[in-house]
Protein backbone atom coordinates (compact mmCIF):
# COMPACT_ATOMS: atom_id res chain seq x y z
CA UNK A 1 0.00 0.00 0.00
CA UNK A 2 1.20 3.50 -0.86
CA UNK A 3 0.05 6.23 1.52
CA UNK A 4 0.56 9.99 1.26
CA UNK A 5 0.21 11.89 4.56
CA UNK A 6 -0.03 15.66 4.99
CA UNK A 7 1.07 17.22 8.27
CA UNK A 8 3.24 14.16 8.75
CA UNK A 9 5.71 15.64 11.25
CA UNK A 10 3.19 16.71 13.91
CA UNK A 11 1.97 14.77 16.94
CA UNK A 12 -0.71 12.69 15.23
CA UNK A 13 1.08 12.84 11.88
CA UNK A 14 4.12 11.11 13.32
CA UNK A 15 1.92 8.37 14.73
CA UNK A 16 0.21 7.92 11.36
CA UNK A 17 3.64 7.51 9.75
CA UNK A 18 4.88 5.10 12.39
CA UNK A 19 1.78 2.90 12.45
CA UNK A 20 1.56 2.84 8.64
CA UNK A 21 5.18 1.78 8.17
CA UNK A 22 5.69 -0.50 11.17
CA UNK A 23 2.28 -2.12 11.63
CA UNK A 24 0.82 -2.01 8.12
CA UNK A 25 4.07 -2.33 6.14
CA UNK A 26 3.00 0.55 3.91
CA UNK A 27 5.20 2.75 1.78
CA UNK A 28 4.62 6.18 3.23
CA UNK A 29 5.23 9.55 1.59
CA UNK A 30 5.33 12.19 4.30
CA UNK A 31 4.43 15.70 3.18
CA UNK A 32 5.95 18.39 5.44
CA UNK A 33 6.70 22.10 5.22
CA UNK A 34 10.28 23.19 4.47
CA UNK A 35 12.39 23.41 7.66
CA UNK A 36 9.81 21.39 9.61
CA UNK A 37 11.10 19.35 12.54
CA UNK A 38 11.15 15.78 11.22
CA UNK A 39 12.96 14.19 14.14
CA UNK A 40 10.07 11.87 15.00
CA UNK A 41 9.76 10.37 11.51
CA UNK A 42 13.07 10.67 9.68
CA UNK A 43 14.36 7.24 10.73
CA UNK A 44 11.25 5.22 9.90
CA UNK A 45 11.86 2.46 7.37
CA UNK A 46 9.66 2.66 4.30
CA UNK A 47 9.13 6.40 4.60
CA UNK A 48 10.06 9.10 2.12
CA UNK A 49 9.87 12.77 3.10
CA UNK A 50 8.50 15.32 0.61
CA UNK A 51 8.58 19.08 1.15
CA UNK A 52 5.90 21.58 0.16
CA UNK A 53 4.77 24.96 1.43
CA UNK A 54 1.22 23.82 0.52
CA UNK A 55 0.74 26.58 -2.04
CA UNK A 56 -1.18 25.54 -5.16
CA UNK A 57 1.95 25.61 -7.33
CA UNK A 58 4.10 23.74 -4.83
CA UNK A 59 1.50 21.04 -4.16
CA UNK A 60 0.92 20.37 -7.84
CA UNK A 61 4.66 20.19 -8.55
CA UNK A 62 5.34 17.80 -5.67
CA UNK A 63 2.36 15.54 -6.42
CA UNK A 64 3.06 15.44 -10.16
CA UNK A 65 6.68 14.45 -9.49
CA UNK A 66 5.52 11.79 -7.02
CA UNK A 67 3.00 10.42 -9.54
CA UNK A 68 5.66 10.19 -12.26
CA UNK A 69 8.15 8.44 -9.99
CA UNK A 70 5.95 6.21 -7.83
CA UNK A 71 2.53 6.02 -9.45
CA UNK A 72 -0.82 6.89 -7.90
CA UNK A 73 -1.46 6.56 -4.16
CA UNK A 74 -3.78 3.97 -2.63
CA UNK A 75 -4.65 6.30 0.25
CA UNK A 76 -4.10 9.95 1.09
CA UNK A 77 -4.50 11.07 4.70
CA UNK A 78 -5.03 14.82 4.98
CA UNK A 79 -3.92 15.52 8.52
CA UNK A 80 -2.37 18.99 8.22
CA UNK A 81 -4.27 21.77 9.96
CA UNK A 82 -4.32 24.49 12.60
CA UNK A 83 -5.44 23.65 16.15
CA UNK A 84 -4.53 26.79 18.11
CA UNK A 85 -5.04 30.46 17.33
CA UNK A 86 -6.76 33.52 18.81
CA UNK A 87 -7.85 34.55 15.31
CA UNK A 88 -10.97 32.99 13.78
CA UNK A 89 -9.82 33.80 10.25
CA UNK A 90 -6.59 31.85 10.79
CA UNK A 91 -8.54 28.62 11.39
CA UNK A 92 -10.48 29.07 8.16
CA UNK A 93 -7.41 30.09 6.16
CA UNK A 94 -5.57 26.90 7.12
CA UNK A 95 -8.21 24.29 7.83
CA UNK A 96 -10.55 25.22 4.98
CA UNK A 97 -8.18 26.93 2.55
CA UNK A 98 -5.56 24.21 2.73
CA UNK A 99 -8.19 21.49 2.38
CA UNK A 100 -9.44 23.21 -0.77
CA UNK A 101 -5.90 23.24 -2.19
CA UNK A 102 -5.32 19.58 -1.32
CA UNK A 103 -8.57 18.54 -3.02
CA UNK A 104 -7.77 20.64 -6.07
CA UNK A 105 -4.24 19.21 -6.33
CA UNK A 106 -5.61 15.65 -6.17
CA UNK A 107 -8.11 16.40 -8.93
CA UNK A 108 -5.58 18.16 -11.17
CA UNK A 109 -2.70 15.67 -10.79
CA UNK A 110 -4.55 12.36 -10.52
CA UNK A 111 -2.27 11.34 -7.65
CA UNK A 112 -5.00 9.36 -5.86
CA UNK A 113 -6.80 6.24 -7.04
CA UNK A 114 -8.01 5.22 -3.59
CA UNK A 115 -9.65 7.15 -0.76
CA UNK A 116 -9.02 10.54 0.77
CA UNK A 117 -9.07 10.25 4.56
CA UNK A 118 -9.58 13.56 6.33
CA UNK A 119 -8.63 13.91 9.99
CA UNK A 120 -11.25 16.27 11.41
CA UNK A 121 -12.26 16.55 15.07
CA UNK A 122 -15.26 15.99 17.33
CA UNK A 123 -15.14 19.77 17.71
CA UNK A 124 -16.95 19.75 14.34
CA UNK A 125 -19.79 17.83 16.00
CA UNK A 126 -19.77 19.97 19.13
CA UNK A 127 -20.45 19.07 22.76
CA UNK A 128 -23.45 17.03 23.85
CA UNK A 129 -26.76 18.89 23.57
CA UNK A 130 -25.46 21.99 21.78
CA UNK A 131 -26.26 20.95 18.18
CA UNK A 132 -23.01 21.98 16.56
CA UNK A 133 -19.58 23.49 17.06
CA UNK A 134 -18.97 26.05 19.81
CA UNK A 135 -15.57 27.32 18.62
CA UNK A 136 -13.95 28.81 15.55
CA UNK A 137 -11.81 25.68 15.36
CA UNK A 138 -14.89 23.46 15.30
CA UNK A 139 -16.59 25.70 12.73
CA UNK A 140 -13.51 25.54 10.49
CA UNK A 141 -13.26 21.76 10.72
CA UNK A 142 -16.94 21.40 9.87
CA UNK A 143 -16.47 23.67 6.85
CA UNK A 144 -13.43 21.65 5.78
CA UNK A 145 -15.50 18.46 6.01
CA UNK A 146 -17.97 20.03 3.59
CA UNK A 147 -15.13 20.65 1.14
CA UNK A 148 -14.22 16.96 1.34
CA UNK A 149 -17.83 15.81 0.91
CA UNK A 150 -18.34 18.08 -2.13
CA UNK A 151 -15.08 17.02 -3.80
CA UNK A 152 -16.45 14.07 -5.76
CA UNK A 153 -13.63 11.93 -4.31
CA UNK A 154 -14.10 8.73 -2.35
CA UNK A 155 -13.60 9.90 1.22
CA UNK A 156 -13.71 9.01 4.89
CA UNK A 157 -13.89 11.74 7.52
CA UNK A 158 -12.50 10.88 10.96
CA UNK A 159 -13.54 12.82 14.04
CA UNK A 160 -11.27 11.88 16.95
CA UNK A 161 -12.10 13.04 20.45
CA UNK A 162 -9.32 14.29 22.77
CA UNK A 163 -6.06 12.62 21.70
CA UNK A 164 -3.20 11.86 24.08
CA UNK A 165 -0.03 9.81 24.07
CA UNK A 166 3.75 10.02 23.70
CA UNK A 167 5.06 13.12 21.88
CA UNK A 168 2.05 15.20 22.94
CA UNK A 169 2.57 17.73 25.69
CA UNK A 170 -1.09 18.63 26.28
CA UNK A 171 -1.23 16.29 29.29
CA UNK A 172 2.33 16.94 30.46
CA UNK A 173 1.41 19.77 32.84
CA UNK A 174 -1.27 17.57 34.41
CA UNK A 175 1.21 14.74 35.04
CA UNK A 176 3.73 17.21 36.47
CA UNK A 177 1.08 18.73 38.74
CA UNK A 178 -0.13 15.37 40.07
CA UNK A 179 3.48 14.40 40.73
CA UNK A 180 3.69 17.50 42.94
CA UNK A 181 0.50 16.44 44.74
CA UNK A 182 -2.20 18.52 43.00
CA UNK A 183 -4.80 17.71 40.36
CA UNK A 184 -6.03 21.08 39.03
CA UNK A 185 -9.62 21.00 37.80
CA UNK A 186 -10.70 24.11 35.88
CA UNK A 187 -13.97 22.53 34.73
CA UNK A 188 -17.16 21.20 36.32
CA UNK A 189 -16.23 18.25 38.59
CA UNK A 190 -18.95 16.11 37.02
CA UNK A 191 -17.90 16.85 33.43
CA UNK A 192 -18.11 13.84 31.11
CA UNK A 193 -15.04 13.40 28.89
CA UNK A 194 -13.87 10.97 26.20
CA UNK A 195 -10.30 10.24 25.10
CA UNK A 196 -8.30 8.13 22.69
CA UNK A 197 -4.61 7.23 22.43
CA UNK A 198 -2.80 8.49 19.33
CA UNK A 199 -1.82 4.94 18.36
CA UNK A 200 -5.48 3.93 18.26
CA UNK A 201 -6.39 6.96 16.16
CA UNK A 202 -3.66 6.20 13.63
CA UNK A 203 -4.35 2.47 13.50
CA UNK A 204 -8.09 2.88 13.00
CA UNK A 205 -7.65 5.56 10.34
CA UNK A 206 -5.37 3.30 8.30
CA UNK A 207 -7.27 0.06 8.96
CA UNK A 208 -10.74 1.41 8.23
CA UNK A 209 -9.54 3.33 5.18
CA UNK A 210 -8.29 0.02 3.77
CA UNK A 211 -11.73 -1.56 4.09
CA UNK A 212 -14.91 -1.14 2.06
CA UNK A 213 -16.26 1.84 4.01
CA UNK A 214 -16.54 4.98 1.93
CA UNK A 215 -18.14 8.44 2.07
CA UNK A 216 -18.77 8.26 5.82
CA UNK A 217 -18.02 10.23 8.97
CA UNK A 218 -16.40 8.05 11.63
CA UNK A 219 -16.04 9.13 15.26
CA UNK A 220 -12.99 7.89 17.14
CA UNK A 221 -12.82 7.36 20.91
CA UNK A 222 -11.88 4.47 23.18
CA UNK A 223 -15.49 3.67 24.12
CA UNK A 224 -15.33 4.89 27.74
CA UNK A 225 -16.62 8.00 29.48
CA UNK A 226 -14.31 9.61 32.03
CA UNK A 227 -14.73 11.95 34.97
CA UNK A 228 -12.08 14.14 36.56
CA UNK A 229 -11.96 11.81 39.55
CA UNK A 230 -11.32 8.91 37.18
CA UNK A 231 -8.61 10.82 35.34
CA UNK A 232 -7.01 11.76 38.65
CA UNK A 233 -7.06 8.16 39.85
CA UNK A 234 -5.53 6.87 36.61
CA UNK A 235 -2.63 9.31 36.73
CA UNK A 236 -2.09 8.64 40.45
CA UNK A 237 -1.90 4.91 39.79
CA UNK A 238 0.68 5.39 37.04
CA UNK A 239 2.77 7.77 39.16
CA UNK A 240 2.18 5.84 42.40
CA UNK A 241 1.36 9.20 43.94
CA UNK A 242 -1.65 10.61 45.79
CA UNK A 243 -2.90 14.09 44.95
CA UNK A 244 -5.43 16.66 46.08
CA UNK A 245 -8.04 17.83 43.58
CA UNK A 246 -7.85 21.61 43.34
CA UNK A 247 -11.12 22.92 41.87
CA UNK A 248 -10.50 26.27 40.17
CA UNK A 249 -13.63 28.41 39.67
CA UNK A 250 -14.50 28.75 36.00
CA UNK A 251 -14.89 32.53 36.32
CA UNK A 252 -11.34 32.79 37.68
CA UNK A 253 -9.93 30.63 34.89
CA UNK A 254 -11.61 32.71 32.21
CA UNK A 255 -10.53 35.97 33.82
CA UNK A 256 -6.96 34.67 33.79
CA UNK A 257 -7.25 33.63 30.14
CA UNK A 258 -8.59 37.04 29.15
CA UNK A 259 -5.67 38.66 30.95
CA UNK A 260 -3.19 36.40 29.16
CA UNK A 261 -4.84 37.18 25.83
CA UNK A 262 -4.55 40.93 26.54
CA UNK A 263 -0.84 40.72 27.28
CA UNK A 264 -0.36 38.39 24.33
CA UNK A 265 -1.80 41.00 21.99
CA UNK A 266 0.66 43.54 23.40
CA UNK A 267 3.78 41.39 23.41
CA UNK A 268 3.05 39.36 20.28
CA UNK A 269 2.46 35.83 21.56
CA UNK A 270 -0.55 33.54 21.32
CA UNK A 271 -1.77 31.80 24.48
CA UNK A 272 -1.89 28.03 24.54
CA UNK A 273 -5.47 28.13 25.85
CA UNK A 274 -8.15 30.70 25.02
CA UNK A 275 -11.47 31.48 26.67
CA UNK A 276 -13.28 30.04 23.65
CA UNK A 277 -11.26 26.81 23.76
CA UNK A 278 -11.78 26.51 27.52
CA UNK A 279 -15.52 26.91 27.00
CA UNK A 280 -15.40 24.11 24.43
CA UNK A 281 -13.30 21.56 26.29
CA UNK A 282 -15.15 21.95 29.60
CA UNK A 283 -18.48 20.82 28.14
CA UNK A 284 -19.76 17.21 28.13
CA UNK A 285 -18.54 15.00 25.27
CA UNK A 286 -20.24 11.67 26.03
CA UNK A 287 -21.97 11.26 22.66
CA UNK A 288 -23.70 7.95 22.00
CA UNK A 289 -22.01 6.26 19.04
CA UNK A 290 -23.38 2.77 19.75
CA UNK A 291 -25.22 2.48 16.43
CA UNK A 292 -22.14 3.64 14.55
CA UNK A 293 -19.99 1.08 16.40
CA UNK A 294 -22.28 -1.74 15.28
CA UNK A 295 -21.67 -0.76 11.67
CA UNK A 296 -18.04 0.32 12.05
CA UNK A 297 -16.32 -1.33 15.03
CA UNK A 298 -13.03 0.11 16.23
CA UNK A 299 -9.87 -1.66 17.35
CA UNK A 300 -8.69 -0.19 20.66
CA UNK A 301 -5.34 -1.19 22.17
CA UNK A 302 -5.03 1.31 25.01
CA UNK A 303 -7.46 1.84 27.86
CA UNK A 304 -6.89 4.91 30.04
CA UNK A 305 -4.51 3.24 32.48
CA UNK A 306 -2.30 1.53 29.91
CA UNK A 307 -2.42 4.65 27.73
CA UNK A 308 -1.37 6.92 30.59
CA UNK A 309 1.36 4.44 31.57
CA UNK A 310 2.65 4.48 27.99
CA UNK A 311 2.55 8.29 27.95
CA UNK A 312 4.33 8.54 31.31
CA UNK A 313 7.14 6.28 30.12
CA UNK A 314 7.70 8.67 27.23
CA UNK A 315 7.71 11.69 29.53
CA UNK A 316 10.27 9.97 31.74
CA UNK A 317 12.47 9.02 28.78
CA UNK A 318 12.52 12.68 27.76
CA UNK A 319 13.22 13.80 31.35
CA UNK A 320 10.00 15.80 31.39
CA UNK A 321 8.67 14.43 34.69
Description:
The protein is globular. The two termini are 39 Å apart. It has helices at 11-23, 56-70, 88-109, 136-149, 172-179, 198-209, 228-239, 250-267, 275-281, 290-295, 304-317; strands spanning 2-6, 27-32, 47-51, 73-78, 112-119, 155-160, 162-164, 182-185, 195-197, 216-220, 244-247. With 321 residues, the protein is of the alpha/beta class. The mean pLDDT is 92. The chain has a domain at 2-169 and 194-226 and 287-301: NAD(P)-binding Rossmann-like Domain (Rossmann fold). The strands form three sheets. It has a seven-stranded parallel β-sheet with strand order 3-2-1-4-5-6-10, with helices on both faces.
Layout of strands and helices, then pairs:
Layout: E1 2-6, H1 11-23, E2 27-32, E3 47-51, H2 56-70, E4 73-78, H3 88-109, E5 112-119, H4 136-149, E6 155-160, E7 162-164, H5 172-179, E8 182-185, E9 195-197, H6 198-209, E10 216-220, H7 228-239, E11 244-247, H8 250-267, H9 275-281, H10 290-295, H11 304-317
Q: Could you tell me the number of beta strands?
A: 11
- The H-and-E topology, N to C, reads as EHEEHEHEHEEHEEHEHEHHHH
Outline type: globular
Rg (C-alpha, Å): 20 Å
Spatial gap, N to C terminus: 39 Å
What is the assigned CATH homologous superfamily of the domain at 2-169 and 194-226 and 287-301?
Answer: NAD(P)-binding Rossmann-like Domain
Strand content: 15-25%
- Helix fraction, binned, reads 40-55%
Q: Main sheet, how many strands, which sense, barrel?
A: 7 strands, parallel
Mean pLDDT: 92
Amino acid sequence: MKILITGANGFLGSWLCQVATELHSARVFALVRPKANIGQIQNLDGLQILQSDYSELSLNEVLTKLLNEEGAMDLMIHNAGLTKSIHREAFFKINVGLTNRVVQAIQETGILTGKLAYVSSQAALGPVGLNGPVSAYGDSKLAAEQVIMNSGLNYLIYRPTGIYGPRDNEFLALFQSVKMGLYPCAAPKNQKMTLIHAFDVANNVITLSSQDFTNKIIHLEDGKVYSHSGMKAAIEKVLNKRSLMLVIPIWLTRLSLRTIKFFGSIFGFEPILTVEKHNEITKDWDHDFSLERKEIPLSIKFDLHSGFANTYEHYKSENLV
